[in-house]
Design a protein that fits this description.
13 helices, Brnchd-chn_aa_trnsp_permease, membrane, transport, transmembrane, globular, 75% helix, transmembrane helix, single chain
């Protein structure tokens, strides 16, 4: 498949990104509604989605803001939720690290869960793709996702309370992450980290300011990394 025309990889990525609209749109709508109900203005809400550009971190920060949590706790929680982006970047740098600086900067900005998931799977399945093909595929994958996140947030602000309760937009949050995470559970380290994060998040859910989420994320990443190191050592001995 690597002998396909360069431009086709953009559209291949585009097609793989399209299904995520089924969860990105209600996810964005929900954030627009919740942020408005929390007292954010339309401009603030749109700026939040455009600048932070990270749905899970936005919801976590918004929840803590509504509880009048200390500023440092809000920042620490948002950073902890988004620590996965640092791992995404490190993983993608193997495949896209030789791109020009301006392209890497743009990739970093639009690197969300959906674009990472489909891109890393494609790159690992087709390791002989050229750098140009990888870049085209990545930007194709984010084209339907990222603009619609902003648009959906705006629609959520505009529609607000007119969205009926029976639509249950909050279904999009868990489904979005299940759709992303499930195909990426490829190693024992991945599965152990996922299980530990789930168990700890549930056990520590009673801690104030969602601190249980912080602890669960940090512990799961440490354990997952250690398991992967051990597995690599065994493979080389």
């Amino acid at each position: 498949m690597t002998d396909a025309p360069q431009k086709s990889y953009y559209w291949i990525g585009f097609r793989e990104g399209l299904p995520f609209l089924l969860v990105v749109v209600p996810f964005g709508l929900l954030f627009g509604v919740v942020a408005t109900e929390a007292g954010f203005t339309g401009v603030q809400t749109m700026a939040f989605s455009s600048v932070v550009f990270a749905g899970a971190a936005q919801f976590a920060a918004l929840h803590l803001m509504a509880e009048d949590a200390p500023f440092l706790i809000i920042v620490a929680t948002a950073l902890a939720v988004n620590l996965r982006m640092a791992m995404y970047s490190a993983s993608l740098s193997v495949w896209l690290g030789k791109a020009p600086l301006w392209k890497r900067a743009l990739i970093a900005y639009v690197n969300v869960d959906q674009s990472y998931a489909v891109s890393i799977n494609r790159f690992e399945d087709e390791p002989h793709l050229t750098l140009s093909q990888r870049i085209r595929f990545f930007f194709g994958a984010v084209t339907p996702v990222c603009p619609m996140w902003i648009v959906a947030t705006g629609l959520g602000i505009w529609l607000g309370d007119t969205i009926p309760d029976w639509m249950a937009l909050d279904f999009a949050v868990p489904i979005c992450f299940l759709a992303i995470i499930a195909p990426m559970m490829r190693t024992l380290a991945h599965m152990i980290a996922a299980v530990i994060s789930i168990v700890l998040a549930l056990v520590l859910s009673g801690l104030p300011y969602n601190l249980g989420l912080l602890v669960a994320a940090v512990v799961a990443m440490i354990v997952g990394a250690q398991v992967e190191v051990m597995m690599n050592r065994r493979a080389t001995t």
